[in-house]
Amino acid sequence: MEAVTRKPYRNVANDLLWSPFGLDHCGIFSGLNPPDALAATNYKSADRSEPPFVYGVPAFMGMIGGFYMDAAGMFRVIDIVRKDRLLSSKGRETLLRPRFHGPGGEEGYALGGRTRAVLIAGGQKTYMAESGNNLGFRALAYGLTDSPETVVMLNNVSIDRDDMEPTAFRLLEAMVRGRMPVRVVVKQARGTGDL
Asked: What's the whole-number mean pLDDT along residues 104-116?
């Protein structure tokens, strides 16, 4: 991309993805911390006696490890996959079709992330699943593929996906049953900054 556009990768991503889709607090970085003023500090645990992680991301890792996004951006990306004009119906179908299945066939890796099936409110639902971690940061975003219910969970204190997932499913269940709004963000944060 850099050779064709004659721009750094982070600028190409901003010009083609972040800016056109209104992803204001997203980007690619290298150095000690994301340049966004709202970036949270990274911790090993919620224990206030633990010092924060300070780490560097070398420039060559930008394509795989120097990416940051806020909760609003995660909701927006799920909405783009669900319904935006960026994808045709066939493209969306291809993107969400599982290619590989995990143990027991419950997890499918699609081209752009994971799609899974889960029993919610007495019916089988397919959802997009994206999760990530980097030292103390953890993110989980689950959005049903055929309706607007979406959960985004973020923390900066090393709470793993396996520990967040049961809550995410309970929230999706409550949304499908009409007991709460169709979008929920859960943040577990320690220190200054915003997740």
From this structure: 62
